Amino acid sequence: MERVRASEVAADLEPTRRPADPPPDTRREQLSPEAMLALQQSAGNQAAVARLRADRAQISRNGNHHNKWDQKRSDRTGRPHKAKWLREQDAIKAREKKERNAKVRAVRRFMERQVAPWATQARIGQLINTNFEEMKADDSLKGDAKTLQPSQHRSADSTDPQIAPGDTQFLAPNKSGDTAIHRGIVGIEMVEGVPHVRVYSALWAEARPDKTGKITHKDVHQDPETGAIAIHTGRDQGEDKDASKAEAASKHPIMWLSAEPLRQLKWFYKYPIEKFARGAKPVVRSFLVPNELWLEISGAAVSEDEATEKGNEDKPFNVDTAYGSNQFGVRGPLLDKLRSLAAKNSLVSYVGDMSHSKPEFGGNIQHVDALHQQLGAPTNTPPKLKPLHSQQGSAGNPIWATAPIWVDPDMGKFARTASHGTFADALSIHYATWVGKDALLPDAYSKVPKPRRQDMLREFLTKNGHELPEDYALP
Questions:
Q1: Which residue stretches does the UniProt record annotate as biased composition, category Polar residues (predicted)?
Q2: How far is CA 427 from CA 94, 256, 391, 460, 474, in A?
Q3: d(CA 404, CA 239)
């Protein structure tokens, strides 16, 4: 082997200026550790040979050959190794890609799990009110309520109907004076082959016996031994028949029931924000009554305006009509019948905290999320939007706030029916822009140019704590 002079090796190893970009391949960069060791041996550089051997031993022990070699080589030449530089660049790109994908996933979850469901809830609220207004104006609904029997129109191939099993019947809405009795389809469950309606009642809190053993507030209990359903209207509704209390004795006990679970779920969230009654521990009770009895209650109902007229004192009456169907105050003989015919062991209680209902009263106690799931209702809060009627802020800098779609915490009341359509439109435009489907655009926004709608979406996301990457291409 031709002996290489030490001066030539030293010149070859002399540091050069580090370029900004990765260095080009050179003969020196292509040397393997073995070649470098042989080169030092041939040059007679014993100190370098000993140092290289020590490095190789350390590298072998650490199990990190390439990184250690790159580091040592970079130290001696003053130039970073190209492979190491490329790995570092790849790591940076991978981290940036991961962060970018995380932002997009967070936006997608927000749009699918929060924006779309709450847009749907706002639209439902709008349509319920619109539907009722149309009922009041429809003269074809005058007269007695018509009976609907889906089985008469059912296909012979239908063996397991989900809405109206068997010969289930429903009552259609009809006009009553200047208004209408707001009825609709109800949920049916079969008990020993007999169709039953599941009815609901929202409570401020579970009514437990006082020191005298009396239940003085509205509630529905189930006996843990017999399964019997006990309906309590509460002293404020005239249940106390103590003759010494003339005011209570003159009242007719009333039980507020609904076959519309969504409305009772909204009451569940309204109780805690009421300004005049703090400390609510809301509960939604639910139990079964025969559909035949429900038809009797619904068919006998008068409007709330007619409830106090002479001759109507014992009749059920239709309430909360702009917000939902099938909601009645039940009193008189039909309340007695309700108490006697409520299906045993059918009570289900929905609570936000499992301690808010005791097993000796609540029957089958479930978290309120279970009711949300049954109804396909969101469990999160509505997105932030520009407010309509409070906390407007300065003209150029409006304060964004959680959209009051079910309830309005600032007002301590239910959300106004007039605002439902506006909130539905405001959320729908963002969702339509996100998925790129102009067919979903509300009429009020159909002429807004796409670039403007995309800017509006990005602002909306920012106000709700999300951000799309600048290079993300919206459809």
A1: 148-161
A2: 34, 34, 20, 10, 17
A3: 35
Type of residue numbered 240: D
Dist CA 415 CA 270 (whole Å):
10
Written as six digits, the tokens of 31 are 């040397």
* N-terminal to C-terminal alpha carbon distance within the chain: 68
Q: How many residues does the chain have?
A: 475
Question: Do residues 250 and 131 share a domain?
Answer: no
Does the residue 1 lie in any domain? no
> Are both 215 and 307 inside the same structural domain?
yes
Tokens of 280: 């609510």
CA neighbours within 13 Å on the CB side: how many for 171? 25
- pLDDT one digit per residue (tens) for the chain, 475 residues: 444 444 444 444 444 444 444 544 444 445 566 666 666 566 666 766 677 676 666 666 555 544 544 554 454 444 556 788 888 888 888 998 999 999 999 999 999 999 999 999 999 999 999 999 999 999 999 999 999 888 888 887 877 777 888 889 999 999 988 899 999 999 999 999 999 999 999 999 999 998 888 898 999 999 999 999 999 998 766 666 554 444 444 467 999 999 999 999 999 999 999 988 889 999 999 999 999 999 999 999 999 999 999 999 999 999 999 999 999 999 999 999 999 999 999 999 999 999 999 999 999 999 999 999 999 999 999 999 976 544 444 455 667 899 999 999 989 999 988 899 999 999 999 999 999 999 999 998 999 999 999 999 999 999 999 999 999 999 9
- For residue 431, which phi and psi values (nearest 5 degrees)? -70, -40
Are residues 319 and 399 part of one domain?
A: no
Which residue carries 């003269």 as its tokens?
A: 139
Print the domain residue range for 117. Answer: 81-137+381-475
Its pTM stands at 0.78
3-class SS of residue 420: helix
For 106, other C-beta atoms within 10 Å of its C-beta total 15
Rounded CA separation 253/264 (Å): 20
Alpha carbon distance 102, 108 (integer Å):
10
Helical pair 116-137 and 417-435, crossing angle rounded to 10 deg: 140
Query: Using CA of residue 270, residue 461, residue 464, residue 388, what is the dihedral sign?
Result: negative
Give the total number of structural domains in the chain. Answer: 3
Structure tokens at 339: 């108490």
Q: Are 317 and 254 in contact (CB under 8 A)?
A: no
Looking at residue 467, the DSSP 8-state letter turns out to be -
Question: Do 194 and 251 share a structural domain?
Answer: yes
Contact of 74 with 82, CB cutoff 8 Å: no
DSSP 86-154: HHHHHHHHHHHHHHHHHHHHHHHHHIIIIIHHHHHHHHHHHHHHHHHHHHHH-GGG-SSPPEE-GGGG-
Tokens read off for 376: 């396909």
